[in-house]
Each structure stands twice: as structure tokens, then as C-alpha cells.
């Protein structure tokens, strides 16, 4: 079940075209600043990718992981996915869970590099306080997907992070929550951790 959610996230990541930290000059909360950030990061991903068939060094692969996944606030998504369990486990268990969760996503993000070459159309950007919603259309050959990004502006770090993204109205964070809660309810949190440890070690 977890593999299905990971595949969903892998598909999502190829159409993101954005990365985690806001660079100097983009630490604003205007629509124009958000759009410029997303477009610049999309270009950065494509520049690293190069033409189809390009071979990547270990350094380039790590760079791609950083750019593709840098936008995600894994801790926020992990807390949302675990629900009440988050408050019942120790800080050490929380840290391990977030580490495993992020490692799995980072590793899987390079499975289908060609899909990161999709064309992105920004349909709308709305900002409400420290929250932003970006609606896009991703097109790659005959694949068309509506993608909505939910972002939060971290004041202490002056950067935007993604807390959820929806593909054709399907929430990625919500999908993880359903899958994780199902495992926890049937077999407990320790079983979920065992599954994640095995997957992360592959």
C-alpha cells in the first residue's frame, strides 16, 4: 500500500518544478514572488536533467534529489500522517520516522527522471497570511494533470515549504495518512516503522 502512495508522490514530484528554500530576493509573500520562484526552480531542474538519455554522476543525482525534494516539509507531513500517534511517541521516534519517510521519498524521486520534463502552466496563485495555494497544469506528451500545491511560509526561516499537493483532487498528505493509519490500527506503530525501515534499506 505504501508503494502506491510513493508512486503517487513520484508522479507528483515530476510536475512540481519548485524547490524548498526561498533564495535571497524571493523572501516575499507576493503572488509575483511565488510565481517567479517556482518558474526559476523549474528551470533549474530541467537544466540539471539535460536531454533525454543523459547520464548522471553521483553528485548530480544528489543535486537532483535536493532540488526535487527540497520543497517538502517532511515533518509537517509526518505529523499529519500519524495524527494522534505523533503525540504518543517519543521525540526520538518522531525524528526516526521523519528521517525514514524523507529518505524513501528522496530515493524514489529519481526512478523516472524523464517525467520531470513536463511543461508547467500556472493557473492561479492565492496567498492568505502565511499560506499559499498554487494551481497548475502539468503536460507531458499525452499526460495532463491538474496539480494544486499547498504551501506555508516559515517566518523564522523566511522560506516557503510544501505541506501537501493534490493531483486531480487527490491529496498526497491525505493518502499517506490513510495508508499509515490503516497499518497502525491493524498492527501498531512499530509494524509501520518496520515496514519503513525495510523499504529505506533497499
Poorly predicted segments? 17-27
Radius of gyration: 17 Å
Strand elements, count: 5
Number of domains: 1
Structural class: alpha+beta
SSE order, one letter for each helix or strand = HHHHHHEEEEEHH
CATH class: Alpha Beta
- Give the helix proportion (percent range): 40-55%
> What's the overall geometry?
globular
Average pLDDT level: 84
CATH topology: Nuclear Transport Factor 2, Chain: A
Name the CATH superfamily assignment. Tgt2/MlaC
Descriptive overview:
By secondary structure, the protein is of the alpha+beta class. It has a single domain (2-200), classed as Roll (Nuclear Transport Factor 2, Chain: A), CATH 3.10.450.710. The chain is built from eight helices and five strands, in the order H-H-H-H-H-H-E-E-E-E-E-H-H. A five-stranded antiparallel sheet has the order 1-2-3-4-5. A hairpin with a 2-residue loop joins strand 1 and strand 2. Helix 1 (2-14) runs antiparallel to helix 7.
Amino acid at each position: 500500500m505504501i508503494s502506491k502512495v510513493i508512486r503517487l508522490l513520484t508522479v507528483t514530484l515530476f510536475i512540481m518544478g519548485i524547490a524548498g528554500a526561498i533564495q535571497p530576493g524571493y523572501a516575499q509573500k507576493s503572488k509575483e514572488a511565488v510565481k517567479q520562484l517556482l518558474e526559476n526552480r523549474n528551470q533549474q531542474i530541467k537544466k540539471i536533467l539535460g536531454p533525454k538519455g543523459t547520464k548522471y554522476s553521483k553528485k548530480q543525482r544528489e543535486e537532483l534529489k535536493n532540488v526535487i525534494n527540497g520543497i517538502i516539509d517532511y515533518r509537517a507531513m509526518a505529523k499529519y500522517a500519524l495524527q494522534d500517534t505523533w503525540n504518543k511517541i517519543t521525540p526520538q521516534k518522531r525524528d526516526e520516522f521523519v528521517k525514514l519517510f524523507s529518505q524513501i521519498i528522496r530515493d524514489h524521486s529519481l526512478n523516472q527522471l524523464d517525467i520531470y520534463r513536463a511543461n508547467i502552466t500556472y493557473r492561479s496563485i492565492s496567498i492568505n497570511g502565511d499560506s499559499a495555494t498554487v494551481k497548475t497544469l502539468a503536460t507531458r506528451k499525452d499526460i495532463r494533470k491538474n496539480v494544486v500545491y499547498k504551501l506555508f511560509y516559515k517566518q523564522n526561516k523566511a522560506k516557503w515549504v510544501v505541506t501537501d499537493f493534490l493531483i486531480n483532487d487527490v491529496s498526497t498528505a491525505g493518502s499517506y495518512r490513510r495508508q499509515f493509519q490503516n497499518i497502525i490500527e491493524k498492527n501498531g506503530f512499530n509494524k509501520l516503522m518496520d515496514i519503513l525501515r525495510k523499504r529505506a534499506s533497499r
